[in-house]
Amino acid sequence: MERWSGRVAVVTGASVGIGASIAAELTKKGLKVVGLARRSEKIEELSKTLDSAKGKLYAVKCDVSNESEVKEAFKWVKDNLGVVDVLVNNAAVLYDNSIIDGPTEELKKMLDLNVLGLSMCTKEALQVMKEKGVDDGHIIHINSVAGHMPSPGRFTMYFATKHAVTALTEGLRRELVQQKSKIRVTSVSPGLVKSEMPPEDFLKNYPYLNPEDIADAVLYALGVPPHVQVHELTVVPVGQY
Question: What is the pTM of this model?
């Protein structure tokens, strides 16, 4: 991880849970980390606990599903820090609803954030990397085991959005190869993680990971040698069915 010290990372959904843990660990490793979230005040609170870290955590208010806010956020990064070297697409939402009779607005929110938001942030980050001559950058999508298996008949749209992330990861890798770019792309697919997202009954009845476990996986993917690409990393708790 030493080679990333002093470089710039953007982490979406950095206010709580997995995103907050990733932002904190990257800051401790010496990166300048920009946390994007609607609740940016939580990122500001987190930054105060990292005063002794080698890096620095910045809070930028941004609804990742809003294109104009995404563009403005990445403009802030470029204007204030100059470049983007790492992007961690973590922001996502899950609604416990039904394709048959669930509210359309909730279905749309999942698509807008989990798929389009991720894609817009990826596009903006890559544009900055290209403009600034960064050819060893890294794009990391926080995916899910839901992106690799059929829906159990619950959370169908959420599963569909994560299958889209799986397809987008491979598609982006191929696009970068075609451009002879050395920018890497990684999908990290956790099982159940203790955070605000899973329904309470899941956390009561099934084994789960902690957000720090996923942050460790991100550090691993970033820390391998430059010629190695960890394309898919699945992390599940012991005993998960």
Answer: 0.96
Checking 202-207 for CB contacts under 8 A at 24+ apart, the result is 206/240, 206/241, 207/237, 207/238, 207/239, 207/240
Element of type H or E holding 11: strand 8-12
pLDDT of residue 198: 83
Instruction: Count CB neighbours of 88 within 10 A.
Output: 32
Q: Residue 163: which residues within 8 A CB-CB, separation 6 or more?
A: 146, 147, 148
Q: Which runs of consecutive H residues, i.e. helices, occur in the chain?
A: 17-28, 40-48, 67-81, 104-110, 118-131, 156-178, 200-205, 211-223
Among 122, 147, 158, 156, residue whose Cα is nearest residue 137: 122
Contact 25, 215 (CB under 8 A): yes
Cβ partners under 8 Å of residue 92, min gap 6: 13, 113, 114, 118, 142, 161, 197
Give the pair of three-digit tokens for residue 26: 């990257």
Retrieve residue 2's tokens. 């030493």
Cα 108 to Cα 11, 95, 105, distances in angstroms: 23, 11, 5
pLDDT in tens, 105-146: 999 999 999 999 999 999 999 999 999 999 999 999 999 999
- Average pLDDT in the 89-118 region? 95
* Residue 158 annotated among the catalytic residues of the structure: yes
List the catalytic residue out of 158, 206, 208, 220.
158
